[in-house]
Every structure is written in structure tokens, then in C-alpha cells.
Amino acid sequence: MKIQYELTFDDYRAAQRLHALRSFWSRLVRILTLYIYPVAGFIILLLGLSLFREGASVHTLFICGIVLLCCPLYLRIQLRRCYKRTRSGNGSCQLTFDEETIRVEGQYSKGEMDWKAIHSFREDAKVFLLYLAPAKFIAIPKRVCSEEQITELKGFFLQKIQITTQ
Fold first, then answer.
1. Complete DSSP assignment for the chain
2. Most CB contacts within 10 A, which of 49, 85, 122, 166?
3. What is the CATH topology of the domain spanning 2-8+88-160?
């Protein structure tokens, strides 16, 4: 089976989101950054406005509130920066799966690996992740696959990937 795609920023973001859900700490950081910090920033800004009306100097409260409110934007900017830094060429990739190997071809690279090189896989509604190491994976966006291909890929992964417990 062959799959050809170009990894977009949305695909990259979905892969990073799924990867971040692997541990408690990364989930906690994600919840703090996307939800708790902005709410706290909004509350601090409201507190600063109420104290400002009473004549207090609240510059620090305003600065802290704005910084906390902008955490999700900062996270997105950092993710986009990382996406751009890790691209080689236009990001196009062709994966070929057969019974023995996985072949990966990019614009400037070509490689082949045994199924034994894949330690585990994860999936969600948008992407498959094939883990070569705990923090190194191949992302396969589901948007480029038909329903039959998705089913066939899951079957390949379940059959070929020997998940080892350590």
C-alpha cells in the first residue's frame, strides 16, 4: 500500500497534540496553557480594572494578566516555529507498506525500515503516529487515506508492530 502526502501545519499540530497526551505531565501543561492560565489572566485583568478605579497602581497586574491571557497564542507561535524548523523541502512524503518493510521517501531522502523498528503506534480521529523511539515518530494524516486504507493500515499496525512492555 502506498500513501503520499504533504504534512501541513494542521497535521503537525494534530500529531503533536496526540503525542502530548501520552503522559500526565504533558496533559497537565496543555490544560494549564490552553485553559487555566487564560482564565487566570482574565480574572487578574478584571481585578486590576477594579483596583485601578480606586486609584491603585496596577501596572504589574495588567502585565501579568496580559501575559497569562496570551499563553495559547504563544504556544501556537512556538509550535509553528518548530514546524518550520523541522521541515526539509516541501514536506512531501511517500510511505510504502508491505509485509516486510516500510519505505519512506521524501523530497531529499529515501529510507527503508523493518517493521521491528516501530515500537508502537497511536491514533486519533486525525492522525496515526508510528513510534520509532519514545519521542520520535512518523505522522500519517488520516485526511489522505480512504476508509479502506485506514482499516488496512490499522490491520497492518496491529499485526506487524510487536509492542514490548518494559
1. -EEEEE--HHHHHHHHHHHHTTSHHHHHHHHIIIIIHHHHHHHHHHHHHHHHHTT---HHHHHHHHHHHTHHHHHHHHHHHHHHHT--TT-EEEEEE-SSEEEEEESS-EEEEEGGG--EEEE-SSEEEEEEETTEEEEEEGGGS-HHHHHHHHHHHHHH------
2. 122
3. PH-domain like (2.30.29)
Q: What is the pLDDT of residues 14-61, one digit of tens each?
A: 999 999 888 899 889 889 999 999 999 999 999 988 887 776 678 888
Q: Considering the chain, what percentage of its residues have pLDDT values greater than 70?
A: 96
pLDDT of residue 165: 39
Give the bridge partners for 94, in sequence order.
4, 105
What is the 3-state secondary structure of 91-125?
CEEEEEECCCEEEEEECCCEEEEEHHHCCEEEECC
pTM: 0.80
Does the pLDDT at position 164 exceed 70? Answer: no
